[in-house]
UniProtKB/TrEMBL annotation:
It comes from the Bacteria. Gene3D superfamilies: Winged helix-like DNA-binding domain superfamily/Winged helix DNA-binding domain. Keywords: DNA-binding, Transcription, Transcription regulation. This is DeoR family transcriptional regulator. CDD domains: HTH_ARSR. Residues 3-57 form the HTH deoR-type domain. InterPro entries: ArsR-like_HTH (IPR011991), Carb_Metab_HTH_regulators (IPR050313), DeoR-like_C (IPR014036), DeoR_HTH (IPR001034), NagB/RpiA_transferase-like (IPR037171), Tscrpt_reg_HTH_DeoR_CS (IPR018356), WH-like_DNA-bd_sf (IPR036388), WH_DNA-bd_sf (IPR036390). GO terms for molecular function: DNA binding; DNA-binding transcription factor activity. SMART domains: DeoRC, HTH_DEOR. SUPFAM superfamilies: NagB/RpiA/CoA transferase-like (SSF100950), Winged helix' DNA-binding domain (SSF46785).
Length: 258
């Protein structure tokens, strides 16, 4: 686990209240000495307050982790220039789902639109994306499994060790995966606090469908979610570099250009 990723997971775990070194070590699967070093680094940076045997967030860090304050809906706003690209990908994604499927809809912007396409379908949706929940909360046909965790308001998502523990008991037919970039054969993300959730959901799913418009090649991000070879289906848009699509097809993997 990357140092920055571990630090974000520590902060996410502390968002619900103070925790001991022992609790944090168990939640992250590292030694207590590693946690103590991490807490010292984060305390020096003013992101948490050290307590006897543990730590708690400072008020400023709590706001950063939970994204408190005014909320703008970044996923459905018509001001986003890629809205039409995401709508086209969502329509293609929904066609891959069969009635009765158990489907993971990832944290991200396009998956909300996929949920909209699945309304009225007899499927089960697993998600930690509150924008997805908003789309299907009143649908009597769709079954919804909402993962618990720490609320990130501006990102409309639930994150943290609690969500990861629940995912370990789940199994899904298909995951629709979002990312911030695709580069050098890897699917990337730039949010350390979200990456463990995405990775756990990948492991719990039989098929991975990557939703990555032309804007994600190369996009951004330094955290590897998975290799591109692990993706069963790539749904993208017409502006994606031809060599990227050609390589995928040559290796026998499915590409859908929305």
């Amino acid at each position: 686990m990357f140092l920055a990723q571990r630090h974000e997971r520590i902060l996410a775990a502390l968002a619900g209240g103070g925790q001991s070194v022992v609790q944090l070590a168990e939640a992250l699967g590292v030694s207590e000495s590693t946690i103590r070093r991490d807490l010292d680094i984060l305390a020096k940076g003013g992101r948490l307050e050290r307590l006897y045997g543990g730590a708690m967030l400072t008020q400023g860090s709590r706001a950063n982790i939970t994204d408190s304050g005014s909320v703008e809906d970044p996923f459905t706003s018509d001001t986003r220039g890629d809205l039409e690209l995401r709508r086209k990908m969502a329509a293609e994604a929904a066609q891959l789902v069969s009635d009765g499927d158990v489907v993971v809809l990832d944290i991200g912007s396009t998956t909300q639109l996929v949920a909209r396409e699945l309304r009225g379908r007899p499927v089960t949706i697993i998600t930690s994306n509150l924008a997805v929940l908003d789309e299907v909360r009143d649908d009597d046909v769709v079954e919804v499994v909402l993962l618990g965790g720490v609320l990130r308001r501006n990102q409309q998502s639930l994150v943290g060790p609690l969500a990861e523990q629940v995912i370990g008991q789940l199994s899904a037919d298909m995951m629709f995966l979002s990312c911030t970039g695709v580069r050098n054969g890897h699917v990337l993300d730039n949010m350390a606090v979200e990456a463990p959730i995405k990775q756990a959901l990948i492991a719990a799913s039989q098929r991975i469908v990557l939703l990555a418009s032309e804007l994600k090649f190369p996009g951004s991000g330094a955290l590897r979610l998975c290799s591109l070879d692990e993706v069963d289906v790539l749904i993208t848009t017409a502006g994606t570099p031809h060599d990227e699509l050609a390589h995928r097809r040559e290796t026998g993997r499915k590409v859908i250009v929305a």
